[in-house]
# Entry
Amino acid sequence: MEGKIIHCAVGNLSCALVDVPSEEGSFRLQEIDGEFVLESGPAKLPSYYLEELRQQGYTIMEGMLDPVALQRLKAGADEKRARDHAEEPPTDGFFWMTDGLLWSPEVCRAITNPIALWVIQQYLSTDDI
# Structure
């Protein structure tokens, strides 16, 4: 199996990720405390996103959330907008929501994804994230 191995340890949790490119995109074989789970991952290798971030100042890591999680995120955003922002005028389909970490486990999972964290650490030249 070819790919880049990323080891991650936080507190009592440790995991090893193997980024494996395939025709369908990239898959991560993840070991958490002896259990392996195959998850879909970003469409491209982490090095691609890092280079794009360095060149453009931003990158889009598609595939960080599976379709079910993405639907939960959309439903949560709709619910929050209806509850907290009902008095605002309609938008063009885009809505700025600044506190996703407070109400969305999906946002938390996406930004703490080991591949996303690795890209950010490399970009900022620090492991202190």
